[in-house]
Amino acid sequence: MKAPPTWRFVRLLVENGYSGAWSVESHLSLRPHDGGLLGADAAETFVRAGQAMQDLGPAVRSAR
């Protein structure tokens, strides 16, 4: 199975010693320059992003 491009970036970071924090970008649905309004699907988008981030775990573990 071919790894998605994001996995390659995560592996590159870990293989080169990155040990910092990982976070989900809140601006996926938040529009800070438009009065800080949330998109209608903000909660769902945030959950999906968190799930996708969890899926990166195997890439990180295999790079260590």
Describe the structure.
This is Xylose isomerase-like TIM barrel domain-containing protein. It is a single chain. The chain has 64 residues and is mostly helical. The protein has one domain (8-63). The chain contains 3 helices and 2 strands, in the order αββαα. A two-stranded antiparallel ribbon has the order 1-2. A hairpin with a 5-residue loop joins β1 (30-31) and β2. The longest helix has 14 residues, at 42-55. The two termini are 20 Å apart. The mean pLDDT is 78.
Keywords:
two-stranded antiparallel ribbon; 3 helices; mainly alpha; 50% helix; 64 residues; 2 strands; single chain
Note the topology.
Blueprint: H1 5-15, E1 30-31, E2 37-38, H2 42-55, H3 57-63
Antiparallel strand pairs: 1-2
Helix pairs in contact: 1-3
Protein name: Xylose isomerase-like TIM barrel domain-containing protein
Organism: Amycolatopsis panacis
Quaternary state of this entry equals: single chain
Radius of gyration: 14 Å
Strand segment count = 2
Largest sheet, order of strands side by side? 1-2
Provide the helix percentage. Answer: 40-55%
End-to-end gap? 20 Å
Report the sheet with the most strands, covering strand number, pairing sense and barrel closure.
Answer: 2 strands, antiparallel
Mean pLDDT: 78
With helices defined by DSSP (H or I, 4 residues minimum), what is the helix count? 3
Percent of residues in β-strands: 5-15%
Count of individual domains: 1
Low-confidence runs (pLDDT<50, min 5 residues)? Answer: none
Shape: elongated
Order of helices and strands: HEEHH
Structural class category = mainly alpha
